[in-house]
Amino acid sequence: MAFINRLLDHLQPLQCSPSNPSGCFMLDVGCGRGRHSKMLAAQGFDVTGIDLSLSSINEAKKFESDNLHFFQHDMRLPFRVNYFHFVFNLFTSFGYFKSERENDNVIASMSSALKEEGMLVLDYLNVHYAEDHLVHKSEVQLNGVTFFITKWFDETHFYKKILIEDDELEEPLEFTEKVAKFSLGDFNDMFAYHHLQLQEVFGDYQFGHYDVRKSPRLLMMAKKLIAK
Predict the structure, then answer these.
(1) Local confidence band at 15 (pLDDT 50, 70, 90 cut-offs)
(2) Domain boundaries, position 78
(3) In terms of Cα–Cα distance, which of 183, 188, 189 is closest to 218?
(4) Which of 52, 66, 89, 127 is the most exposed place for a label (fewest CB within 10 A)?
(5) End-to-end CA distance of the chain
(6) For residue range 134-168, what is the model confidence (pLDDT) as tens digits?
(7) 137-142: strand order across its sheet
(8) Total structural domains in the chain?
(9) How many whole angstroms separate alpha carbon 98 and alpha carbon 75?
């Protein structure tokens, strides 16, 4: 909640509809069960959350209201073109697709969803910091369930394998996920190609200065350019 409050203080979204917060339209891309969407809507803004997971969206829909809406939707595809004042993609919910084209399509769809001069806020891991601080193996126990986590990386991706052991399971469950290694320069190129201009970059959730080696996050704000 503290990060969302700082984000709103920084963006000053009321400027897009000074007398009526519900006139400011926001899109939460990769919203999951709607935790951040709910926080934004609680401030009076009109918020839409989208996610590919039907189970997550069904859970989020329990909290829908006049100014809070949820849809199952693939972030690689356009959604409400030229509609939103702000688009948010938070806590590294980007970079999980198999090809560069698919990741590029996500940037394209988020840009197309924005009104001219609307703002995209994209929060990603800082690749260089993540490489330097990677914990290769860890073990977590929660409610009698043990999670064995192994992490590694190569030139293009970070990988995480999770092995779940539970006495109620016939055999352990195993999952592997990977996220692409995008630098600030990579994002800047993708933004420019899709009519977005990088405005600000921060290195953590306290909006500290971005340092390529010392900052844990890559928090970027990009404005959609006016069509010529």
Answers:
(1) confident
(2) 2-126+182-224
(3) 183
(4) 66
(5) 38
(6) 999 999 888 888 999 999 999 999 999 999 988 87
(7) 137-142, 145-153, 157-165, 173-180
(8) 2
(9) 14
